[in-house]
Design a protein that fits this description.
Length: about 500
């Protein structure tokens, strides 16, 4: 080991140990020794302290650098539906952001579907989940005879795998991670389904399941009514026999003649079944199901649109009121009691086609619309002026968003939350929004430094050629969607 050169202070220390007295250093009386301040370099003037920020730099300099960093991040952020994938690139979902995620491939794409209520309970949060649904197919040209009405039961829908908690039960985990099971019954159709909606009527005997009817708006212009109760019963009652007659429509409505249509809706306030349908000629018809099984259509249509009727919605609170959206850019509100069959309210909400619309069941004066240019908006019907009123000014939406750059193909209010909506668009995305989120005065309309992403946007899911999205009425936060490759 090398020896260290003796330090004078060490020699002085040894002398003290031997009992020798240290030498006294003589100084002039008038001379005061200089003391070294070990913190001398860390003190600053008051001006320097006020100018510097938390990291010793001026705030303005630090904020400018943070802004530059945010801009660099923004250039690298991939926004689903906005940025284009390069050749050979694919998108994969982040499992940690989903409570449940499953994909189902169908033989043919489905333009439309509907979720059915069941007797498994409301507000259920246990897994595996079960969903009952109906859908109509879109077979390719020349193979129209292969179209089907699909009645489905999806069970064993497990939640996404999470890190196991210390006190978790292994048997419960095995049940939650069960493999999904699809059971289906099909009804042959000879034409593409443009829109399908279901209606359920409780039976007088509460021990029996409700009667479930479907209305299918076909490409041929016919509206087919089916009773799919036996098909649903067969999933949970072994031995249920489905006959050929069960797959035949109980009524075929031909009031639209050969005119194709997309708009269709059941009234939620008419238990026996009341249907409103619209076609590409702008005609709207009302059909009522009466006791005894008969169906009666008012031969006189409701008219007022200059182009095709794209969407129809019954009022959730008034059984004689419905609304319509059209490719003429207007939304109209009608009352079936009107002898003139003319709209009571009419507003030009867009300069392009209004494709879809949803009436809030929680706040019944709110109406959401989605247009062909990717913009969607929420309107307060209380601000809409009546025809020939003194107030002729055009109302403004209480919220509108231009995040999507392709046409809006579906929009729906959350069944229990009056500020949450799901939106599907032609940019291959399903998005979830909360319009109750407000801007702070000091915040921009951007989220986390990413431009044009409003803070009301909660979630973005990628789905190829998505057409419709629907909330499950009994499973909180569960959204099902149909697309070019099936369901998600």
């Amino acid at each position: 080991m090398g020896k260290r050169v003796a330090d004078p202070s060490d020699r002085e220390h040894d002398a003290l140990k031997r009992g020798e007295r240290p030498q006294t250093i003589e100084k002039d009386d008038d001379e005061v020794g200089d003391f070294e301040d070990e913190f001398e370099d860390e003190y600053e003037s008051e001006d320097e302290i006020f100018e510097a920020g938390v990291d010793g730099r001026p705030d303005a300099e630090r904020e400018a650098e943070e802004l530059k960093d945010a801009m660099d991040i923004d250039q690298q952020t991939f926004i689903v539906g906005r940025n284009k994938l390069a050749a050979g690139e694919t998108l994969a979902p982040d499992p940690s952001t989903y409570e449940m995620l499953h994909n189902l491939t169908s033989t043919w794409p489905c333009l439309s579907f509907d979720i059915l209520r069941d007797d498994l309970g409301d507000d259920r949060k246990t897994y595996p989940a079960t969903i009952y649904a109906v859908a109509g197919t879109q077979a390719q040209a020349g193979r129209e005879k292969e179209n089907e009405l699909m009645v489905m039961k999806l069970s064993g829908l497990s939640r996404m795998e999470r890190e196991q908690e210390e006190d978790s039960d292994e048997e419960d985990d095995e049940e939650e991670n069960a493999d999904p099971i699809l059971e289906s019954k099909t009804i042959p159709l000879s034409s593409t389904t443009n829109r399908i909606r279901a209606h359920q009527t409780p039976q007088s005997d509460s021990s029996k399941p409700p009667t479930t009817l479907t209305a299918t708006m076909t490409e041929s212009g016919q509206v087919l009514i089916h009773d799919v109760t036996p098909h649903l019963t067969s999933f949970d009652t072994p031995g249920t026999h489905i006959t050929t007659n069960h797959s035949k429509p109980i009524s075929t409505l031909r009031m639209h003649k050969a005119t194709e249509g997309y708009a269709l809706d059941w009234s939620p306030l008419w238990p026996q079944g009341k249907l409103v349908t619209g076609d590409n000629d702008g005609n709207i018809y009302i059909t009522t199901h009466h006791d005894g099984g008969s169906w009666a259509t008012d031969s006189r249509p409701f008219t007022g649109h200059d182009s095709s009727v794209e969407e129809l919605q019954w009022s959730p609170s008034e059984n004689s009121v419905f609304s319509s959206a059209s490719s003429d850019g207007t939304v109209k509100v009608w009352d079936t009691r009107s002898k003139s069959h003319r709209p009571g309210l009419s507003i030009q909400v867009s300069n392009v086609d209004v494709n879809v619309m949803s009436w809030s069941h929680q706040t019944t004066h709110l109406l959401a619309t989605g247009a062909d240019d990717g913009e969607w908006a929420v309107w307060d019907l209380r601000t809409w002026p009546k025809p020939n009123s003194a107030n002729s000014s055009k109302p403004s939406p209480i919220a509108n968003f231009k995040f999507h750059k392709e046409q809006i193909t579906s929009i729906e209010w959350h069944p229990t939350n009056n500020s949450t909506l799901a939106v599907a668009a032609g940019d291959n995305t399903v998005t979830q929004w909360d319009i109750s989120v407000e801007f702070d005065d000091e915040e921009s309309k951007d989220t986390a430094g990413v431009q044009d992403v409003p803070p009301q946007l909660l979630f973005v899911h990628y789905m190829e050629s998505v057409k419709e999205c629907r909330w499950h009425p009994q499973i909180p936060g569960c959204v099902m969607a149909s697309g070019g490759a099936g369901f998600g």
